[in-house]
Input
Amino acid sequence: MASVKRLRALLADTSKIVVCPGVYDGLTARIALNAGFECLYMTGAGTTMSRLGMPDLGIATLNDMRDNAGMIASLDRKIPLIADADTGYGGALMVGRTTEQYIQAGVAALHLEDQVVNKRCGHLKNKELVDEDVFLTRIRAAVNARAQAEGDIVIIARTDALQSLGFDAAVSRLKAAVAIGADVAFLEGFTSKEEGRRVCQELSPTPVLLNMVAGGVTPNFTVQEAQDFGFRIIIFPAFALGPVYQTVAKAAKYLKENGDLPKSDAESAAEFSPKALFTVVGLRESMEFDVAAGGKMYSNGV
Output
């Protein structure tokens, strides 16, 4: 529960904003941890792409998401992980089970949305919503499951209602969710900075999360702008997805056309040696642990 307490403490400090790079596997999580971020975000789209090789269309299951979130959360139990939980993967019983499973996996916060179970990325068109009563049933199920569990988790209520129902209806859904126990509000897909300012004002003092999707429908905010507008959490889901796609696609094209990998200078080659990459994901710590336990395999290094 240390990470949940840490996240609640960060949210209680109104002078700061929680900045979360979007990660989707062990390597991207380690890179973000090594950079010194105080909180991570597990992107559902990235999890679906990396684990299943498929688009974010409600295809990933609870098991897919929980297992990935649990692995990422285990890398550093002190650092909070906020994880996408989509629609909760079913009715009230399944939402309750999802909440319990995320708590057991060491996740510090999850967000639940009001799309139908066959959902789609919040920055795509023609999203379908459930009735407000169904959405609130999901939130209530998560709140009740948290109360029964031997643990804690921050519950983030997300609505995708802005696109089809308008700003007032979307904010009304979020206010209702907060009234029954959600800790943080998340208005997805707003299209102007003024709407961002308004949602923070309307929901104050409840913390509001900003989803900063590169190339999405929401205008770009820097971290400082987001804080100035009143947001308390900002997530960058495509933090790793974009650079990985661009770099690997370029390398794949070069290899296909030239039968070799792109040449790099000596400094870059050393940076990407097997040992250097293993160090990113804990080589040194693993060796030290083995030696401390009396192991001999790594006493002379690798």
In short: The first helix runs from residue 2 to 12. The chain has two domains: 2-238, 259-302.
